[in-house]
Amino acid sequence: MSAASPDRPPVNGTIALLLFDLDGTLADTSAEIADALNDTLRRLLLPEVAEEQVRGWIGGGTRELLMRALVAADRAEWLDAAWAGFARDYERRCGTRSRLYPGAAALLRRARAAGLRLALLTNKEERFARRILQRHALAPLFDLVIAGDTLARAKPHPDGVWLALQRLGLAPAQALLVGDSLTDLRTARAAGIAVWLVRHGYPGGLAECGEAPDGWIAHFDEFRQSTTPAAARRAPPLRSARPSTPAGSGRRSRAGSGRA
Length: 260
Hints:
- The chain is of the alpha/beta class.
- It has 2 domains: 17-28 and 99-234, HAD superfamily/HAD-like (Rossmann fold), CATH 3.40.50; 30-93, Orthogonal Bundle (DNA polymerase, domain 1).
- It is 37% helix and 11% strand.
- The chain contains 10 helices and 8 strands.
- The protein has helices spanning 30-43, 51-55, 62-72, 79-93, 104-113, 126-135, 159-168, 182-191, 206-209, 229-234, and strands at residues 17-20, 27-28, 99-100, 117-121, 144-146, 175-179, 194-198, 215-217.
- The strands form 2 sheets. It has a 6-stranded parallel sheet with strand order 5-4-1-6-7-8, with helices on both faces. Strands 2-3 form a two-stranded antiparallel ribbon.
- Strand 6 (175-179), helix 8 and strand 7 (194-198) form a beta-alpha-beta unit.
- Helix 1 (30-43) packs across helix 4 (79-93) and helix 3 crosses helix 4.
- The relative contact order is 0.20.
């Protein structure tokens, strides 16, 4: 059963909550998503797709990604029949080849140590999002997980942000969204909160849209969250000499706590 759409909270306060996107922001998940998608496509006797193509489809949730792949193969009408098999394929692959971006885990630990509340805000279905968090030992760091199937409307609609604020007793001016895409930027704008975007990830049309976030994150090791909304909105792009490459070799449920 879907949670009721939250009312928009009042505006006041200072930054107390960081909301993070998952795919392309905290973790590069494209390799394992491509693996699962190609498992499904082979079973359907359809051509496999390259990981680079899959990267362009990430951001709307797992079912939406399957739809994009089937549309590309001119088989959009197969979505309902193919979904259960793809969900099994992805559940088996989920967490096997995803890699955290450098500094992501350390940033989350710093934020918790500083007393900030943390929420995951992703369009990925909850069971897949939680599996990735668990595989990378991030689950205990989050107060809330709000996924693509938590509410009737996912990002870029602001309901997920408002639900997090409502659950944690905070206002929009106390929140900052960290993401990688145009979807994240528009989610924050619709919710009335500040937004910083990473330089890596899956931007999803960001370069062509003419819209800009309040700040950029070149590398998580250099990210220091501002203590006031005004400072967050004035923040210039961060610079780093280190590349932001990965470290290492739907909508019907309730929002859940990410804490153990």
